[in-house]
Predict the 3D structure of the following.
Amino acid sequence: MNCFKNRFCCSAVAIFVAVVCLPVLIQAQTGAVTVQASVSEVVALSASSNFAVPNVQVTGAADRKSLTVDLTGSGAGEQTFRLPVLIRSNSSYSISSLVRSESVGSVTLAPLDARATGRFVASDAAASVVTTNPDVSTRLDLSAPSSIFQGSRVSLAGTLDSPENAVEVTLLVTVSPEAKSAHWRLQLMLSATPGLNFK
């Protein structure tokens, strides 16, 4: 009799577990899972392979967020340089400059043109490059960077070293040395800021 009762109790417990727990198992197996993730906004600057300008040395930062351009020259006449720079980004961006010099009277900076380097560049990336100020005359030894130009997202795929996901922007630099200077030196520091509202 006790054995019968024990078997009955065990069967009842088994049925209870099956009835009560089965919906829970089904819910766990069929429930929706939501995963949230975010991607950091990145803008990378590097020297173009077309960068072959006499008396110009370019040094890139390890994090790709800035470029330092050192220019040297002689004579008092106005001189111009064309500096091709590669930009890769997964967001809109702004490019700023900070200038230091020796024996230089004034410097003017402006983007001259822009072109896509390959198939992984957004269709409007080159056309979206616009000058922040049409006449960007940067004061020497400026304590804060001056904005030069801005643009929309550039890269659709690839890495910071991919050959087909950058916009090449040619920056026109016009240097006016001091009247009596025999030699002059200019250091131009370009920096990139991602994620700005772009219109």
